[in-house]
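Narrative summary of target 7.
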Amino acid sequence: MRKLLILFSVLLFSALTAGTVHPYHVGSVEFRYNSEFKTFQISAKFFLDDLENALKEKYGKAVHFNDEKFKAQINSLLVDYLSDYLKLKADHKVLTLTYLGYEEDSESVNIYLESEKINTPKKVETAVSALYNLFDDQINIIHIVVEGKRHSHKLSYPDRYLFKEF
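Modeled conformation, tokenized:
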């Protein structure tokens, strides 16, 4: 009887806390070409806890987005992390991406980058594998927008490459 009570307590606790962890791992990245500035403006959005865990897994350092004392360290880690897991190529040229910063949005993190200048591209290639170092069920929704034409695609682990012509 005691074992049954313990088992019931564990199951009840699991059921009550199940809602605190989201059941899916998804992020989104938009590569939007800005013809005025001749750059790609990139915005990425990931669950805050997933990104914290991915940074900890890769670099062995725990950081917390909701704590101001970690802001400089998070910025530094995100520069390194994104240089490994987010690439952009336009018209067969690998573009240099500049990290601009991040902001917290409730349970998620918005990250901003900008590419070097390039004329309006005809071919765009992306390589996005953010959070693949942590989850083998990660899905990244990729949006590429050039001259008002939007192409969207779902990349599921282990797929990381997307190629579009405009």
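DSSP finds three helices and ten strands in the chain.
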